[in-house]
Structures are given as C-alpha cells and as structure tokens.
Design a protein that fits this description.
about 5% strand, two-stranded antiparallel ribbon, 41 helices, elongated, three-stranded antiparallel β-sheet, 7 strands, about 900 residues, mainly alpha
Length: about 900
Amino acid sequence: MDTLLHARILLTAEVESLKTGPLDPRYVREAEHIISGESYQLVQQFVDRFKGKIKISGEISACSVIAALNEFLEIEVYEVGQENEMLFLAIALLQTFIQNNYTGPAARLNAVSSLFSKTGNEIGAISKALVRSLAVMGQPAYELMDDPLYLVLSLLLLERITGQGSLFSVSQDQEVPLPVISPDSTPGLLAVSYWWWARALLTHLSLIPEPSGFQASVAAAIYQSTDLAHAVIKDLPESVHEDFKRQLYAMYYLENVKCSLAINTEHLCLPSLTKVKNITNFEFVMTGARATRTKYQQKAHAGLIIIAKSLTFQKFAINTNSVAPETFALESDLLLEKPHFESLTDEPLDEQIYSKRPKLDLGSGYEEDKLLPLALRQENIPRSLLDLDPNNQPNLSDYDNIQLLLRLYTIKNTTPAKDPLVEEELTALLSRILYQNGEKNWSIFARSLWERSIIETTKAKTIERGLLQMQSLVEELDLKIKSKLIPNSDEINVPSRLSYIHQLPFLPRWELDATLAEKYMSLGILKSAVEIYERLGMVCETALCYATVGDEKKAEEILLQRIKENDSDARAFSILGDIKQDPSLWEKSWEIGKYVNAKNSLAKYYFNPPPSSGIQPNFSATLKHLNDSLRQYPLSFETWYFYGCVGLQCGKMQIAAEAFSRCVSLDPYHALSWSNLSAAYMKMDKLKEAYSCLKRAIASDAQKNWKIWENFMLVAVKLNEWEDVLMACKQLVNIRRDKCGEGSIDLPIIEKLVELLVTSEYPEEPEKLSYFQKSCTEFICNTLPQVITTSARCWRLVARVELWRKRPWAALECHEKAYRAISHNPDLEINEKVWNDTVDACEDLVAAYESLGEMEGKYGPDSLVCKDWKYKCRSTIKALMSKGRGRWDDSPGWDRLVEARSQI
C-alpha cells in the first residue's frame, strides 16, 4: 500500500480513498499536503524539529557545509527501515524548492537561519556555500536562487535512500556507477525513490547554463527503460484499475522525453512520444485548411492546423479549477484574434497543403510516425477527426496537451531557428492548446502563452502583444519588479502550478526573465536587457550581451571583475577565453572546474588556429582536448561528431569509427554520422560494415544527400550488390538532374549495369522479366533519355538496351541521337579531336544503318526498321563532309569518310 500511496503522489492523484485502508494516517496526511501544494508545511515541521542542529566545524565552504549536512542526516534524521518517512521529507523539500524558484508564489521559511547553529554574516556565507555545492563541471549554479538548502537536502536524502552514493563527493576524475533497475527484483518503493531522484537531478541541471556532468548520466540511466515503471507497478495491489497503471506509464514516457530534452539528446524523444500517444489513445494530425487571418480578408488562404481529440484521462488531473494566466488581446486593426478556418471538406486537402509544401510527395498519404503526423489528402485524416469543427475543437486532456508541448520543444531543438514553415507548424500546435474552452491548467496554459510569445516577438504585427505577454508571465511568478500586472495572490492555485512541473521542461523564473532580456537585446534595446541581467546577477550573460553588440572591451571588464570576486567560476574564465581567444584562460577554466566547453574551445582553437596566433593546426592536441571533454560529458552528440571528423581528417580511423559509433548510438537517425562511420570502415577495409552503415544512412533522413548515395553506390559496386547499385544510380539522377543535367549520370557504373543486363537472356514474354531487368530497363530507356543532352556515349548505351529488348527501330533512333549530339559541337571546324570523334560517330551510325536497317520494323513482318538506309548513310556522310570541306580535306578522318562512302 505504501507503493500505491507514492504512485498517487507521482501522479498528483487524490488519496482520500486511502484514508480508510491499512496505511498509517500520518503518511496519508503528508501525501495530501504534497499533492495540495502545501509541501512547505512538512518542511516547516522538519525545521521546527531540528532547529539549530546542523553544526559546521572549521571554515565555511561548500565541502564543509556538505559534510555537516551529511553528518546531521546520519545522526539525527536518517534511520534504516524509515526510508518511507525519509522519502516524504525528500519530496516535500524538492517540491518546496520548485515552488519557490519555478512556479511561485514563494513559501518563505528561512530554513538556513533556523537549522544551522550560526548567526549573522555566517548564514549568508552558508547560503553562498550551498549554491557553490550545486556547481557542475565548473559551471556555477544560479547564485540568486531561493533556498538552495531544500534542494541539497532533498538530493542527499534521495542518494541515501537509493544507496547509490553521493554525487556531491565524487571527484571529477572518478567513474560514477549508474543505477540498475530491475523490473522484477527492485522493490516498488525503491523504484519510486529512483524516480524522485531523477526528478531532483533534472531540477539540479536546470540551475546551470548547460547540461553536463554525472547528474545528466544518472538521470538518463534511470529513465532509459520502462523498467522504472514496471518496478513500481508490480508492487501495486491487484485491485488497482488498469487505467491507473496506464497513467503511470504515460507519466514515465512524458518524463523520459523531458529528460532527453534536458540533456540535449532530443533525437531520442520520438519513440517515447509515439508510445505515450498510443497509451493515451491520443488522435491528432496536422493538415491544411484555408483560413482568413485578417479582418478585411475576402479570400481564404492555405494554412496549417492541428486537428486533435482526446479519448482518455479527460478528468484525470486534480486541482484544475485555477485562474488562468493573464492574457492579452492583439487589439490589432488588421489581424483577427485567431485564424478562422473553413470546413475541412470544402476543398481537396492536397491543394491546400501543396501551396505550403511544394516539394511533398502527395502520394505518400498519411505519415504517422513523425513528430507531427501529417495528412496530405482528405481521405488520410482519421475518420474520428474529420467531422470536427476546426474553429471549435473539443478540449484536450492535460496529458495530451503536454504531448503537444513536448513535440513542440523537440521540433524547436531539431530544426533551424526562425524557419518560416517551422514557425507555422509551432503556431498550429500552440493554437490547438490555447484556443480551448473551459478550465485550463495554469502550468500548461502559461507555458503555451510563453512559447507563442517567443514566436510573436519575431513578427512586426504581433511583437507588442508578445513582449507584453512575456512581461506579464514573468511577473506572475512574484518577482520583485516595480510595475505589476499579476493577479491577486489569493487567486493563485499552487497545486495547479505544481501539477505538471515534472513533465514539462524546467523554466526557472530567472530563465524566463533572461529570455525576456534576450528579446530586448535582439530588438536593440540593450539598456533594458543589461538591466535585467544585472538584476538577475547573471554576470556572464551581461558580458555576452555586450560582446554580441561588439563591445568586447566592456565584456572583458565585466568578466575580469567577476573573476576577481569569484576565482572559481570556470565558465567566466572560459567565456573570457572565447572573447580573447586565449588558450591559457581555457586551460585555467579546465583546471579549476573541469568545464567541458573550455576543452571544446581549446580543441577548435588548435584545429583551426586564428591567423594572429602564428601556429599551425595541431590535430593531436585537438583530439586530446576533445577526449578530455568527452570523458567528463559523454552525452554530447556535437562533441562526438567533431571528434570523429577530426579523426577522419588526420587518418585515425579507429578514433573516427569509435566517435561515429557513439554518435549513432545517441542519434540512430543521423544520416551523416552513419555515412562518416562507413567512411572510417572503408578506410579500414571493412566493406560489409561500411555497406551496412550506408544502408542505415539512406534509410535515415538522407534522401536528398547525393554524396551519401554516391558512397553507397561505390561500396555496393565493390560488393557486387547490383540491385542496390541500380537504386543508387536512380536516386543520384533524381537528386542531381535539375542542377547537373547529364552530369548526374555515372557513365562507368551505367555501362557495367548495361553489360550485366544485356548479357542475360531477354525472356520471350516481357512479364517474366526479373525485378532487376525490369527496373534497369525502365531506368535506362525511360529515365536517362530525359536527362541526356550532349553525351553520344549515353545514347549508345540506351541503344544497346533497346536492341536487347528486340526493339531495333528504337536502337537506331538512339544511334541517330548519339550522332546528332556530337555533330552539333561548335568546335567541329576548329578542333581536330572533335572532328575525329564526329567521324567515329558517323561510322557508328552508318554501321547501325547497315546492321539494323533491314530488320523487322515496329509495325510487324511487313515493315522494316529503315527501308532507305543506304540513302541515309550517304546523306549522313555527305553532310559531314560538307562541314569539313576546306578545313579537314587532308586529314585521316576525311579519308575514312571517303572510304566509307565508297563501301555503300
């Protein structure tokens, strides 16, 4: 039953029904406090009980504070067999920290001054030491956060409950054992503890500028498989309804996606998003519909829309009756508040979408296994969605709204910034969440408003509303700002704000404010941006702000002052090194904090030194620095990719193969990584491995990358995989024909394919052609003639195939086209080589007339291929001689033409 109670806490589900069961009533009350957003009451009880109990011996530092906390937990708090009670405390501490720093309004408890037996200035020093203890790999945690003690205590408790050892005491050179969770042998309560530990670690990571360190690896290990959810569910009572278990699985997959986004492995999101979509039976599709967007628009134009409907978990979340965030109308004289869509059945959808995506293959129909399932035709929209009114769609469950938001974040992280089509897709996603009637969860609705504002501040007609909305959302978190637009505090529903905080990517209140500053900076409002950064105490961001606008001297002054005040800020050293391009500063950053970006900057510096440095590229140093970086943070896809590229460039194929193998394990759909891995294998003479990698590359998103297809073709030739060679040839022609014309044809490969084809026997009945014969014939005889312009050699290859097909009349036409292609060369009268090549082509055509002219023609036994072939032979020779007369009369080619004419 304890596992059931904690499962309900995970889901923020009601626990009223458990009061009459065998559970300790005290635990049920504590669970109610956590679920109802009153975790601070448990924290207050804890503070009151242990007031003044934490004693620090010696100088106050991050190490001494952590040591004192560990000693306090060991002696006063932690008891073997009381893990359940400790878990309640850890959860309450974490939730209170999140309320104070992420959702608001803050619950002020002053725990530091109460728990530590220190007074006055010592309390301030302890708070600073606690912040320093949360630094990761040289990156300091945000220094002005509220109550870091709550997060530190929560992490320490969860480390003790799970028995994994403390990440606070691990040196940067040590290996950290990753958690192993068994679906059968791991107790349910321990699995819940791991789950909360992962949540706390992601909270910790959100406090630093860039994800790195052991925290990311441990969180990823906990969320890496469904064993976490299996271990919890196996210990639930048999009476638990199946829907409750499905909710736990849905929650797990949503948090799995959040973890991937948090540690920059967003390429792993799609499988989990697909699974949670199936669990919740969520139906949605992106399609096209005509819409009016302005007040005076007479004709509707094509636009993108998300059609969606929820089928389960409609009434799952509790405490949804919250006041929605303050929203602002556009109040535009031109734009409508929201687009007005015409009915989906008014016009064929392919016509509507085509104007938006002219390159789409409209025959592909419904693409479901995408971040945005796409219906290209009317009949491809699921029947259950087709009848929905696009202007008044039904409300979605909170789970399904979160899915849409997570898909939005994944798209943002995997697509180019400010791409107009991507922004239209994101706007369609946000519109589906925002334009719903009825009750709205504060967290989901506020996050959607925030993301819409990010997009709107890039457009002139909506920038005013976007900035005003961002300012309002920042203020609603109870920041101390002069002008206030937030609702009264008695209207704030804390449970609603906390209910989905662990499923949505973390956005601390200072990050929201910093994003607003970025917007000001992008608009050239430098003073306002700097004011926000200074108020937030973000010294490095302030310096970057000045550096971005070209005032590097001011940026250097700010960073030097920061280093003077805090000589352990590895990030400040590294950014100063980036500005000054000084390797010694990067070395210092690495020395004091093992800051990964410092090593990455060193690697780039030695890979491509600036001209002022006077040094040559040093690949060995580059590889060494990248290796150091990856040992500290092995989840960085970009660093592995760079590592592999350097290995390829300097001929270290083992390193390249290892690096790109790690890349494809992090992102199995990255075509360039598969291609580069194949290149390394080819250099190592591992053709079969290279071939397999290239097959994965072309199966990934590489349909327009001609270089990958060319490599695939060359390796397939070496392995005699002729069907794949043919497929690659076709794809290369399709990709390159518009830019390169007949340059897209690889003649030696085509000649080999033709040789293989014509040496086989043509069947009596065409329908008995093998797949290779049919496909090759179609390519040679139908595709290539559309591409050939001047290549006589290509036309002769087509002629060979036509003759093999027992179509001599078509073969003769190809020979004629081959001759015309070369005889129209303008250099014929000035270049003897061109003259001789033309004479050769003329002799080939004459020979073709002689050998094919009297064969059975196109219209059966009573027809010939060319009845007057002798006349055509003489006419062809005569025309060529007239072109060469007076210039090539004494050449060997002229004599050959005379000889040929006499032979007819």
